[in-house]
Design goal:
By secondary structure, this protein is an alpha/beta fold. It has one domain: 3-Layer(aba) Sandwich (Rossmann fold). Helices cover 44% and strands 15% of the residues. The chain is built from 8 helices and 7 strands; from the N terminus they run βαβαβαβαβαβαααβ. The chain has a 7-stranded parallel beta sheet, with helices on both faces. Helix 3 runs parallel beside helix 4 and helix 4 packs parallel to helix 5. The longest helix is centred in the middle third of the chain and has 28 residues. The structure holds NADP nicotinamide-adenine-dinucleotide phosphate. NADP nicotinamide-adenine-dinucleotide phosphate binds next to helix 1, strand 2, helix 4 and helix 6.
Length: 248
């Protein structure tokens, strides 16, 4: 159990990719905090599944864009060893005619400011408690590198910003063993995508993937586990997208 004795938090861990990351971290022995903001029942279901399989987990409801709540959350969870910044605002796209500045700010508030606030609280705690070998994993997207459709500009920009967060925390945390990395998934048919895309839209998206199928959430969680377990990779990006884009 390579992660036994470690405590991890997965933001947006109540469904989709975050749910599977939480389950896989727990299987490796970590105690997992499953976070979300709006649907506590979903988070509780993930926690129940982890506990039924012999793992340790609990739910923490917190809107990660709320600075004082994030501070309270991290203060209540000392010590934390692993942070996975996975939450994103849903819905994640909007028609161009409704994509005003307010929409852009809402997306940035959750996807970027939320990840920043969690990373900062995590960083400060690791430094203050003199924790060794701590990990930040930022879940970005293949869309952080590809040109955005008009409906997705705010989302793509928010995911590009994750790389800046990764580099900053990798740089500033290196002296005390904190690593930060980005995992960039391609298409994953999570319950959210299944709900939002028509069958035809999903087929069109799949047709763009050289390997011919979407990723599974387990394949994304594998990449997360790799950078969590390997303490010498930092400031890196793992592209896991079926060959959709050959990143730098
Ligand atoms: N699915 C894909 O094809 C794909 C591709 C590339 C990248 N990604 C990235 O992978 C990650 C997971 O994707 P997904 O499809 O699994 O996402 P999802 O199904 O939309 O789940 C989003 C999660 O974030 C939580 N959340 C939303 N607002 C929040 C807030 N203010 N504070 C805390 N939690 C909040 C949601 O729970 P509540 O609503 O209950 O708060 C939910 O648990 C995202 O970062 C996404 O951008 C996904």
């Amino acid at each position: 159990m390579p992660l036994s004795g470690k405590r991890a938090i997965v933001t947006g861990g109540s469904q989709g990719i975050g749910r599977v990351i939480a389950i896989q971290l727990a299987k490796q022995g970590a105690e997992v905090i499953v976070n979300c903001a709006h649907n506590p029942k979903n988070a509780q279901a993930v926690v129940d599944e982890i506990i039924q399989n012999g793992g340790k987990a609990s739910v923490k409801i917190c809107d990660i864009s709320d600075e004082s709540k994030v501070k309270q959350l991290f203060d209540s969870l000392k010590p934390l060893h692993i942070l996975v910044n996975n939450a994103r605002l849903d819905p994640y796209f909007r028609k161009p005619e409704t994509s005003d500045g307010d929409w852009f700010s809402q997306v940035m508030d959750v996807n970027v400011k939320g990840a920043y606030l969690c990373s900062l609280a995590f960083f400060d705690q690791a430094k203050q408690l003199k924790l060794k070998d701590t990990r930040i994993v930022n879940i970005a997207s293949v869309r952080s590198f590809t040109p955005a459709e008009m409906t997705m500009i705010a989302y793509n920009v928010s995911k590009l910003a994750m790389h800046g967060l990764t580099r900053a925390f990798a740089h500033n945390g290196a002296s005390f063993g904190l690593t930060a990395n980005t995992v960039c998934p391609g298409m994953v048919m999570t319950e959210n995508l299944t709900r939002r895309l028509t069958l035809e839209q999903a087929k069109n998206e799949e047709a763009k993937i050289p390997l011919g199928r979407p990723a599974t959430s387990e394949e994304i969680a594998d990449a997360v586990l790799f950078v969590v377990k390997n303490g010498y990779v930092t400031g890196e990006t793992i592209n896991i997208n079926g060959g959709m884009y050959y990143g730098p």
